[in-house]
Every structure is written in C-alpha cells, then in structure tokens.
C-alpha cells in the first residue's frame, strides 16, 4: 500500500525520529511495513537491523558480566605454544591474580589466553572468556567458566575495559597490540578512570618501548609522561602487584 488514490505525495514525512523530505519521502507507514508479510528478507542485512544486533550484544555482555568480582584482563597471542615459557607465565599470572582476589578475563581463545584462563581455573577463581566471531576462530578454550561470544570487535573491547580494573599484556600480535593501544589511549585521554597496564616480557616489549621513547615522544607526538601509563616486568609477582596495587575492592 502506498499513497491513497487521489492524495498527493507529502513534501515532508516523519518516521519516528527520522525526518524525510521531497524525494526521500517513502510510501506507506512504519506499521504497514512491519505488518506486511510480503517481500524478501534483505532487511535483516540492513544497518538499522545491525544496530539491533549490536544493542543485543551489549545487553548480553552487560547481563553476563555485571556481577563479576573485581577482575583483570589478560591479553596475549593465540599462537603461544603450550610448551613455551610464555604459556607457563600466563598460567602463573592467571593463578596469582585469583590468589590476589581477582577474576581473570581473556579473549577466550587458545595460546596465552588459554594459559591465563587455565591458571585462574586451577586456582578455583572466576575464569572469563570474551570470544569473537572470526573465520579462523577455534572457539572458547576449555578453561573458560563464563563465556560470551561477540560479532563486533568494538562491543567486545568495551567489555574488556568496563569489567576490568587493570590489564596484563603478554607477548602477542596485532590483536594484542590493538587492545594495548586502545587501553593506553583511553587512559591518556581520560575517557576511563586510570587503571594500571603491565607489559610482561621485557625482551619482547623492548623494541616497542624504545620506539615510543625515541620516535614518538622524541618527535613530539606524545608526552614524556605517557611513558608512565604502563609498566614492564619479567616477574609474575611484580606484574600482579603492579596491576592490583591501585585497586580498591
């Protein structure tokens, strides 16, 4: 059903909060399009429908994580081998965080994420995995007790920041760097209350820290005090102490 016979097409149309004029006026009404059983299913791929999916992911994430105790997010490579020192460090960090009274949140995947979840589970703490839909994703690791899978990276990143009081960053690739710089930017710009960020593995992070100091700061692209937004260590106990010392629970 379109414009009733004998009636001219209106010059202005209000559809909820949306205003349409002239050639952008649509035939029919919102209720009519909702109740019309004819037509194809292309509407499920439109941006307005995606907004509903995004909203639902926020609701599910908030609902699942709202009652978490104080938590620390642990990041690291999905490619970390189970027989590597980095994996063992992840297990020790996950265990130590639980013993310090914190839940552990990871990306829920294999490698360093699995290691931290394993340590948390072995210490009988709360082990959380926030997964992401990827073509090569292997699913949540077996040590996750509370898991949420997301379609959208930005929703998942919100959960990491909202429900963690600090970050421990193990050696990792592009995804790990993305999470690290997201956190540093949020703290630097005061979009979030400052929380500690610890890089574990001095040898691995040395090149990045030197580049930040010698190129970014030296070139005037960041300030000297921005280098104080994170700590670097090789010691598990120090990492846990640094990431938890500023937190009141």
TrEMBL record:
Keyword Hydrolase: yes
InterPro entries: LOG, LOG_fam, LOG_family_nucleotidases
This protein's UniProt keywords: Cytokinin biosynthesis, Hydrolase
Enzyme's top EC category: hydrolase
Biological processes, Gene Ontology terms: cytokinin biosynthetic process
Stretches the record annotates as Disordered: 1-33
Residues annotated as transmembrane: none
EC number of this enzyme: 3.2.2.n1
Matching Pfam families: Lysine_decarbox
Reaction(s) catalysed by this chain's protein: 9-ribosyl-trans-zeatin 5'-phosphate + H2O = trans-zeatin + D-ribose 5-phosphate; N(6)-(dimethylallyl)adenosine 5'-phosphate + H2O = N(6)-dimethylallyladenine + D-ribose 5-phosphate
GO cellular component term, pick one: cytosol
Biased amino acid composition, Basic and acidic residues: 8-24
Gene3D superfamilies on file: 3.40.50.450
GO molecular function, one term: hydrolase activity
Family membership noted in the UniProt record: Belongs to the LOG family.
PANTHER family: CYTOKININ RIBOSIDE 5'-MONOPHOSPHATE PHOSPHORIBOHYDROLASE (PTHR43393)
The name this protein goes by in its record: Cytokinin riboside 5'-monophosphate phosphoribohydrolase
Organism: Streptomyces termitum
């Amino acid at each position: 059903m379109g414009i009733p016979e004998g009636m001219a097409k209106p010059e202005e149309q209000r559809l909820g909060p949306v205003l349409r004029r002239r050639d952008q006026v649509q035939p029919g009404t919102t209720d009519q399009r909702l109740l019309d059983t004819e037509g194809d299913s292309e509407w499920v791929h439109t941006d307005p429908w995606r907004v509903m999916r995004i909203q639902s992911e926020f609701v599910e994430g908030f609902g699942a994580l709202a009652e978490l105790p104080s938590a620390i997010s642990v990041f690291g490579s999905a490619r970390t081998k189970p027989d590597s020192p980095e994996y063992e460090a992840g297990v020790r960090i996950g265990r130590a965080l639980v013993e310090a009274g914190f839940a552990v949140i990871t990306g829920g995947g294999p490698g360093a994420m699995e290691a931290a979840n394993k340590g948390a589970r072995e210490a009988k703490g709360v082990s959380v995995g926030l997964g992401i839909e990827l073509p090569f994703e292997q699913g949540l690791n077996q040590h996750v007790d509370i898991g949420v899978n997301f379609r959208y990276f930005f929703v998942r990143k919100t959960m990491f920041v909202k429900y963690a009081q600090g970050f421990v960053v193990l050696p990792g690739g592009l995804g790990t760097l993305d999470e690290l710089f997201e956190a540093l930017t949020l703290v630097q710009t005061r979009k979030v209350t400052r929380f500690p960020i610890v890089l574990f593995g001095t040898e691995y992070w040395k090149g990045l820290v030197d580049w930040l100091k010698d190129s970014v700061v030296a070139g005037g692209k960041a300030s000297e005090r921005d280098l104080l937004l994170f700590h670097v260590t090789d010691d598990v106990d120090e990492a846990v102490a640094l990431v938890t010392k500023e937190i009141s629970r």
